[in-house]
Amino acid sequence: MTQSIINSTIKPFKATAFHNGAFVDVTEQDLLGKWSVVFFYPADFTFVCPTELGDMADHYEQLQAMGVEVYSVSTDTHFTHKAWHASSDTIGKINYPMIGDPTGTITRNFGVMIEEDGLALRGTFVMNPEGEIKVAEIHDLGIGRSASELVRKIQAAQYVATHDGEVCPAKWQPGEETLAPSIDLVGKI
User: Fold this and answer.
1) Strand runs (DSSP E) across the chain, as ranges?
2) pLDDT tens-digit profile of 71-87?
3) Is 168 tagged catalytic?
4) Distance CA 158, CA 152 (A)
5) Segment (H or E) for 124
6) Cα 36 vs. chain centroid, distance in angstroms?
7) Per-residue model confidence (pLDDT) at position 1
8) DSSP-assigned states of every residue in 135-169
9) Which of 49, 113, 133, 156 is catalytic?
10) Does 143 have pLDDT greater than 70?
11) What is the crossing angle of helices 147-162 and 48-65, to 10°?
12) Which intervals hold domain Thioredoxin (predicted)?
């Protein structure tokens, strides 16, 4: 039986990212103190990956306004990330750190490594400011993700974190009614 990654704390790592035209060191400590998204994808210079990373770039300003930092991760190097950023209009609009994980340490820490290929599954993880994983979503390689749905999930996670005793129902949007679980609700929904 496998233990759930939900509510576990991010494991230590050290990596190099391509960010804002420079190579920067990133560790698990950089993810603490704010909400963070770690967004795994299989490889640079591929097909579904640029659509996902571009979609995330389109939502990055909104996520930043919500106090969320985004980190994309693949098993490519930070040098490959720089080359892809320079050669693709879609990837060129990315302003969030693109972490290189050629050793697979981070990818394995999150349980998304495809060992026989040395690539990551499409994994999305949302951490609270304490570094606890609150959202985990893993897709097969052919299934792209939606940044707008990720934004909604983060809004729900942030709401629940600040409203003790309340939970967000399916398709909840900010401003909509939440639920307060109690015995009185059993069988009433």
Assistant:
1) 14-19, 22-27, 35-40, 68-74, 98-100, 113-114, 119-120, 122-127, 133-139
2) 999 999 999 999 999 99
3) no
4) 10
5) strand 122-127
6) 7
7) 45
8) EEEEE-TT----HHHHHHHHHHHHHHHHSTT-B--
9) 49
10) yes
11) 40
12) 4-159
